[in-house]
Amino acid sequence: MHSWLLGGIIAVAVVVVVIKRLAGEPLNARDLLAAPVILTGLGVASLAKAEGLTATDGVWSATGAVLGMAAGAWRGSTIAVFEKNGVLWQRYTGRSFLVLVITFAAMAGFGLLATRAGMHESARPTQLNIGVSFLGEALVVGLRGLRSGVPFAPERSRP
């Protein structure tokens, strides 16, 4: 698959997730974890297939993943987690978007710094960056949900 097509699919998926979370949606484990795990897996697979990567690329990639996870965790701490109809729901808040803008700028700066320091472009897969960020968010939101004592929403049936 062409990288621009994959990037477009990922961008559409991220926009859909953000719109759903802005409106508020039931919080269930599959929806919370599936996309971050899949995107992170695709990113790791992309790294594994990349040729000519150096140990320095590995350090920059690992550092970027840790920063992305932390950014997602920070964003996850701003999400409203509440009970509705006896189950957990989640909704992005204004603070969620403020944190999103701040962390996006920070990650862009980190990426620029890494590239200027010689990191290969193939060592920075977009899927990995987005995946670890959503994974950090999911872990914080999931933990907050577990601590609330309110049950997660049941899984929706898929056609």
Structural class by secondary-structure content: mainly alpha
Strand content: 5-15%
Strand order of the largest sheet: 1-3-2
First and last CA, distance: 26 Å
Report helical residue fraction.
55-70%
The number of E-state strands comes to 3
| Biggest sheet details | 3 strands, antiparallel
Rg, rounded, reads 17 Å
**Shape descriptor:** elongated
User: H/E element string?
Assistant: HEHHEEHH
* Stretches with pLDDT under 50, minimum 5 residues: none
Please report the number of helical segments: 5
What's the overall average pLDDT, rounded?
Answer: 89
Total domains, how many? 1
Describe this structure in words.
By secondary structure, the protein is mainly α. The protein has one domain. It is 70% helix and 8% strand. It is built from five helices and three strands; from the N terminus they run αβααββαα. It has a three-stranded antiparallel sheet. Strand 2 and strand 3 (87-91) form a beta hairpin. Helix 3 (55-77) packs antiparallel against helix 4. The mean pLDDT is 89.
Explain the layout of strands and helices.
Layout: H1 3-23, E1 25-26, H2 29-49, H3 55-77, E2 80-84, E3 87-91, H4 94-116, H5 126-148
Antiparallel strand pairs: 1-3, 2-3
Key phrases:
5 helices, three-stranded antiparallel beta sheet, mainly alpha, 3 strands, 159 residues
Question: Short summary of the structure?
Answer:
The chain has 159 residues and is mostly helical. The protein has five helices and three strands, in the order αβααββαα.
